Design the sequence.
């Protein structure tokens, strides 16, 4: 029994913070988990920048409403879900992810939640569980599943390395160089073929 665990941003949809950085004209917000391995540090830094500029949840959600899945992502996901169980494991937040899940055909996602004041200011965030991607993969394995995992960033490496098969997808040159033993793919057709081969 296999479950495929996929990262969301950079794999199925564009990076939300990069899109918001461009929409808001704040270049610092382009920094993602591809650049900063410490997610807690990254999010506290982002919240500080939002506060400094007087921006809150509504402004980010307005940007997310205009984001579409990456070309071919929904078709890839539909094919994968027709052949086995798929779980999206993301460090994003339910307040960000819901409109994107609608566009992807409502796949199952495990993610985190934001703490938002009445005036819409993002005041903090609540992680679902520590090391959520790795913890989830290990939990799935403990109930009899083999996991196959794919992602593009530092925060995906734990789940990729802990899975029966793991793949980098559209990752950075640095991550690919640091982990030369991990197969790295650029197209959905390549990734789908690799996942199918791993299920045999």
Sequence:
């Amino acid at each position: 029994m296999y479950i495929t665990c996929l990262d969301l941003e950079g794999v199925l949809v564009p990076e939300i913070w990069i899109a918001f950085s461009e929409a808001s004209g704040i270049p610092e917000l382009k920094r993602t988990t591809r650049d900063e391995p410490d997610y807690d540090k990254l999010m506290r830094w982002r919240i500080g920048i939002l506060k400094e500029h007087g921006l809150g949840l509504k402004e980010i959600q307005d940007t997310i409403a205009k984001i579409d899945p990456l070309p071919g992502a929904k078709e890839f996901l539909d094919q994968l879900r027709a052949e086995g169980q798929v779980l999206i494991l993301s460090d994003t937040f339910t307040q960000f992810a819901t409109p994107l899940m609608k566009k992807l055909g409502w796949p199952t996602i495990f993610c985190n939640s934001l703490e938002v004041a009445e005036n819409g200011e993002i005041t903090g965030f609540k992680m679902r569980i520590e090391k959520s991607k790795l913890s989830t993969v290990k939990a799935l394995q403990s109930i009899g599943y083999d996991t196959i995992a794919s992602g593009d960033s530092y925060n995906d490496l734990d789940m990729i390395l802990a899975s029966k098969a793991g793949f980098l997808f559209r990752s950075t040159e640095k991550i690919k160089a640091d982990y030369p033993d991990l197969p790295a793919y650029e197209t959905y057709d390549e990734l789908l073929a690799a996942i199918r081969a791993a299920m045999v």
Observations:
- The mean pLDDT is 95.
